[in-house]
Amino acid sequence: MTTTIVPAAPQDIAELRQLYFEVYGHGYPVALGSDPTEMHRLIADPHCHWLTARRPDTGELAGSAVVQTDPGNRVGKLVGLAVHPRHRQHGLASRLTGAVTAEAFATGALDSVHTTVRLVTQAPQRVVTRNGYRPLGLMPNAADVSGCETLALFACYAEGVLDRREPVAAVPQALMPLLGAAEDSIGISYAGVLPLTPVDTEPPPPHPAGATAPETARGTPSAAPSAPHPEIRTVIEVITAPGFVRRRFRDLFPDPAGAYVPLRTPNTVLTPPDGEFEIYADLDPVAGSCALVAVHPCPSAATRALDALMAALNRAGADYVETLVPLSDAAGLQAFLSSGFVPSACYPAMRRIGDRFHDYVVLSRTDRQIDFRTTAVSPLLQPYLAAYLTSWTSTYLPRHEVVR
């Protein structure tokens, strides 16, 4: 079957909505496949690459793929890959993926493009790996598409990026299985990284608003380590007012480096009644997921309230919560690990600072039962599945049930 790949245009929106409905039904949880206003915005965005495939004889829309970009952070994301059921089995998904990824990198504005793929079959995994994407990890229960699904994270890099990674000396012990999986699946080395015990990485106390503290790798203030504090048991208030949240977020974090979560815009703020801290999040109750974006006045301010935070997000409709933490931030990683978050994916060379690239880690927590029985995990992802199961077991099973 012959198809022509061309950029999407505003007049395609009605057909594109029908395409996503034909592929995903009513369960597609992404606005670019269902919201005409958002679709029009993306098509008009000069930093967004949206390609469609059409049959030259009939003009029928056969497929679609999008790469959204954050040129300030030099990161892109492949989303919305869809091929009409009548046009499958001809390699069109691979052609679209390759074309839109190549177009995005051709601008010279990106260091990497990442994507998440469903694991209902191995076919999507093969499509992205054929086009240079490397597996980075698994996010169990990350989306509610047709039921609660596990997603896999992949990334594709510009030439030379992985060769300029900043080394990390030590990480919490719980990260070691994930780093081993990354070595097996990507071919990078963490040979010199030492494991740290929880005592070595005690989370720092909250830092007073307005005070000055040293900079962390995230570019946000962090306090000096001291004895751990008890968990906050207060109720966390959830404010879902997207316009207000965006304005306040811009006021508190005018420098994009102060809250590094590329391609995420907070729409929700979570705070205790006394306003001791504010956690900014991208909450998607339709997909049942939430990404933590930033904390004011500093990341350490909320480390004592992560359990209360999870309870609040569960009430707001998010059964899955993830956060992005620099691999070099041992105290920040340990704070989330101590609150039931599990290392899910390693994103090497995600952030560019000067001429060097810094690795990041996705930590996730889900309060739904995880069921991998219907998950189609390819051999490239098997090391990540083993690493996740090891970390989940050490987090949630009593020690006498783990050690024989």
Automatic annotation (TrEMBL):
<dbReference type="Pfam" id="PF00583">
    <property type="entry name" value="Acetyltransf_1"/>
</dbReference>
<protein>
    <submittedName>
        <fullName>GNAT family N-acetyltransferase</fullName>
        <ecNumber>2.3.1.-</ecNumber>
    </submittedName>
</protein>
<feature type="domain" description="N-acetyltransferase">
    <location>
        <begin position="3"/>
        <end position="159"/>
    </location>
</feature>
<keyword id="KW-0012">Acyltransferase</keyword>
<dbReference type="InterPro" id="IPR000182">
    <property type="entry name" value="GNAT_dom"/>
</dbReference>
<feature type="region of interest" description="Disordered">
    <location>
        <begin position="198"/>
        <end position="228"/>
    </location>
</feature>
<dbReference type="GO" id="GO:0016746">
    <property type="term" value="F:acyltransferase activity"/>
</dbReference>
<keyword id="KW-0808">Transferase</keyword>
<dbReference type="InterPro" id="IPR016181">
    <property type="entry name" value="Acyl_CoA_acyltransferase"/>
</dbReference>
